[in-house]
Specification:
The protein is an alpha+beta fold. The chain has 21 helices and 30 strands. The strands form five sheets. It has a 17-stranded antiparallel beta sheet that branches. A five-stranded mixed beta sheet has the order 3-4-2-5-6. The longest helix has 23 residues. The protein is globular.
């Protein structure tokens, strides 16, 4: 089994690149960031009009040879006073660095070629421009209502270490806001810092639209705070864009996955003369289905809570909070608690032997009213979970039940910490005969070695935590041995290794590191795009009227006599009555549901649901015989064909000490989007160790770390995080 990822293999066609483009490298006589540098402003301005710009250690500009005399260009740069502190030389493109320092190659070369996609394809030179960000910028889903703040896609390409012709093609989103809005919101030094960033205007000369850098030196354009944009976050918010959305082609094109698809198409269309870019595949060794349903099974939660007391503390003490307490009791009993007497409440007092649910306001309420925040964390004596009154107000019934379910889950984890025994997972099913150790950093203070914490789990699920402060409980040499594989050897401050998520250690001393990578699994993007195009295409000329469609219904009856004829006769009669009336796809789908399927109501709104064999058979016939697609397929086979890289736990070993895995979603949870990308994790066996991580793959088939979803690293790391939240690791 193979899956595609955003890892791409690039083959450069150097002769064609040399024939059409020239490259200038810029080196300054002082250190400083190139982002927004004045020299590069001038390079992309009217005086030089570079086709593309990129930078890392050096800055590079790409010029079209047919539009420029390169020798004259170099002389102009040499004599330009604004480049007096910059050395500009022509460099030659090469596919792979071979020791020639006067070349541009690998990621830098690919970056300039890809960034050139941001310029128009006009034959007029004055329409060419560069984004000057080091990344290609796209403006998906650009609508009037988003004018004040837009999500801008930044497409970047980075070399994979130790690989000469493989790179990662990434899409990230940044928030760009109108300059006028920023001027009203920020003041003083903070505003001055933001205004130093590059300023952009929307450019419609490309499809999709791009951001074009506004340059103070350009006499053709004036800065308008109501039209220009600057990268700037909105206070108190974090912009999120679903990794993949396929509700419509527009949603698909605006998602990171859709943008990757479109960028690859643009590379093929506009840059294939200069480079061939192909997504790489990974061959999977192990594929484990995600089957655990603990948090969605009230009976299993009831078993875990058997005999456990739930105590509700109302710290708000209002009519609304009293109602909330009553709602909580009704939800807990009999759904999760079998004995109503085990549920108690109070206005002030917590109970040490119980699981405590605290009703409080959110943080902003206490700040605005200058009151003491009633939020209180758990400790080893009392298990607490805080529920805000505001979350209750803002949630519908389903959302509120999920909040309560999550609160119960968190309390059960804290109960495990108190008892030092795992109850939410059957540790014995790993069939291990020895202890497993998990090591992680305190993410808040990872500079100091004392903030490494180790969790040792026995075969029966009992566990203990170890930190430097409690080293007398554990072997000092063992602590030091494991800790060294978590610290960056190039750091004098004992900082953690970048992207390291932790260690797993077997009872025989085998050590495996876990790293988060920027490599992500990709669904079948071309096929998804094709299906969406088919869905949104209009009916052909001989299919558009009711009479045309009635002909198709009667044609279908000739080959499907075993179905309910009466349904089809009524359907055909309805169409004949409409005669030459034009029928849209959406209305055709509705009629199929009405006459061949069923109707049901959902939230006081009648919707047509085509679920009968008559409806399904006829829709299949429309697609197979007349190429009329009416809905996105949701059968399991299609899910496997389109989205398999996003399902289950997938693992493969690349060498004897290097492996990768990724954890996706459950197939039945698929709707019309994937919220996040599915990142590959890298497993490295260090210090002569063997790869042992695959023995722990079942520890990610749990739904109590992220309620209702699997976890992407073994769940004991969740226990370590909760332990650190108790303050015990500090």
């Amino acid at each position: 089994m193979n899956i595609l990822t955003n890892r791409v293999k690039i083959t450069f066609h150097i002769d064609a690149i040399k024939q059409d483009f020239a490259f200038i490298r810029f080196k300054r006589d002082y250190d400083g960031k190139w982002w927004g540098a004045e020299e590069l402003d001038r390079i992309i301005g009217d005086d030089y009009q570079a086709m593309s710009v990129g930078y890392a250690q050096f800055a590079y500009a790409m010029f079209e040879r047919k539009s420029n005399n390169i020798d004259e260009l170099k002389n102009r740069l040499y004599n330009d006073s604004q480049f007096s502190k910059v050395v500009a030389i022509e460099v030659q493109p090469e596919a792979i660095y071979s020791g020639n320092n006067e070349c541009i190659c690998e990621a830098s070369l690919a970056r300039l070629l890809i960034n050139s996609l941001g310029s128009s394809r006009s034959k007029h030179k004055h329409l060419h421009f560069s984004n000057l960000t080091g990344s290609l910028l796209r403006v998906p889903l650009f609508t009037e209502r988003l004018l004040k703040s837009i999500a801008v896609a930044e497409i970047s390409i980075d070399r994979i270490p130790a690989e000469q012709d493989e790179f990662l093609l990434n899409v990230s989103f940044a928030n760009y806001r109108k300059k006028g809005v920023i001027l009203n919101e920020y003041k003083g030094e903070e505003l001055a810092k933001i205004l130093k960033r590059p300023e952009y205007i929307i450019y419609d000369g490309t499809n999709p639209p791009s951001l074009k850098r506004w340059l103070p030196s350009s006499p053709k354009e004036k800065s308008d705070p109501n039209k220009s944009y600057i990268q700037c976050r909105e206070k108190g918010t974090k912009r999120h864009v679903d990794f993949l959305s396929f509700r419509s082609r527009r949603d698909f094109d605006g998602s990171p996955a859709g943008i990757l698809h479109n960028v690859m198409n643009n590379i093929e269309k506009n840059l294939s003369k200069y480079m061939t870019v192909e997504f790489c595949s990974r061959e999977i060794d192990i594929d484990i289905p995600l089957d655990t349903r603990l948090m969605n099974d009230s009976e299993k939660i009831k078993e875990l809570l058997d005999g456990e007391r739930i105590h509700i503390i109302d710290k708000v003490d209002s009519e609304e909070s009293h109602e909330l307490v009553a709602q909580l009791k009704q939800f807990l009993y009999p759904c999760y608690i079998t004995d109503e007497k085990l549920i108690t409440d109070s206005r002030k007092i917590e109970k040490k032997p119980a699981l405590n649910l605290r009703i409080i306001h959110d943080e902003s309420y206490y700040q605005e009213n200058k009151l003491t925040d009633q939020y209180k964390k758990s400790d080893h004596q009392i298990q607490r979970q805080n529920i805000t009154l505001e979350s209750y107000r803002q949630s519908d019934e389903k959302g509120w039940k999920n909040i309560v379910k999550t609160s119960i889950k968190e309390l059960l984890i804290k109960r495990d910490l108190r008892a030092e025994k795992i109850t939410l997972f059957d540790w014995c099913k790993l069939n291990t005969t020895g202890d497993w150790t998990f090591a992680a950093w305190d993410q808040e203070e990872n500079e100091a070695q004392s903030h490494v914490v180790f969790m040792k789990i026995k075969p029966n699920g009992e566990f203990t935590f170890h930190t430097k402060e409690k080293i007398s409980l554990w072997n000092w040499q063992e602590f030091e041995k494991y800790k060294q594989f978590m610290i960056d050897s190039n750091s004098a401050e004992n900082k953690k290794i970048r992207n390291l998520e932790g260690l797993v250690i077997s009872d025989t001393g085998e050590i495996n590191q876990i790293f988060r990578t920027d490599e992500i699994s990709l669904p079948n993007l071309p096929e998804i795009a094709q299906i969406l195009d088919e869905l949104e295409s209009e009916l052909l000329e001989n299919q558009r009227t009711a009479n045309d469609l009635a002909d198709i219904v009667e044609e279908f009856l000739q080959v499907s006599s075993e179905l309910d004829q009466e349904k089809f006769n009524l359907f055909s009669e309805e169409l004949r009555e409409r005669g030459s009336e034009t029928i849209s796809k959406a209305y055709l789908y509705s009629l199929i549901g009405q006459y061949l399927g069923t109707k049901r109501k959902q939230k006081d709104k009648e919707i047509n649901v085509s679920i009968t064999k008559e409806a399904i058979s006829f829709r299949d016939y429309l697609l197979e015989k007349h190429q009329i697609r009416l809905k996105f397929p949701q059968d399991n086979q299609t899910k496997d064909d389109l989205f398999d890289p996003y399902f289950n736990i997938k693992y493969f070993e690349q060498t004897e000490n290097l492996a990768y895995y990724c954890v996706g979603s459950r197939k039945e949870q698929l709707q019309f989007s994937f919220k996040d990308a599915c990142h590959l994790r890298q497993i490295v066996a260090v210090n002569g160790s063997k790869l042992i991580f695959k023995e722990l793959l079942p520890t990610m088939d749990v739904d109590f770390v992220r309620t209702g979803q699997s976890t992407v690293i073994p769940f004991p790391f969740k226990y370590i995080r909760e332990y650190l939240n108790l303050g015990e690791g500090k």
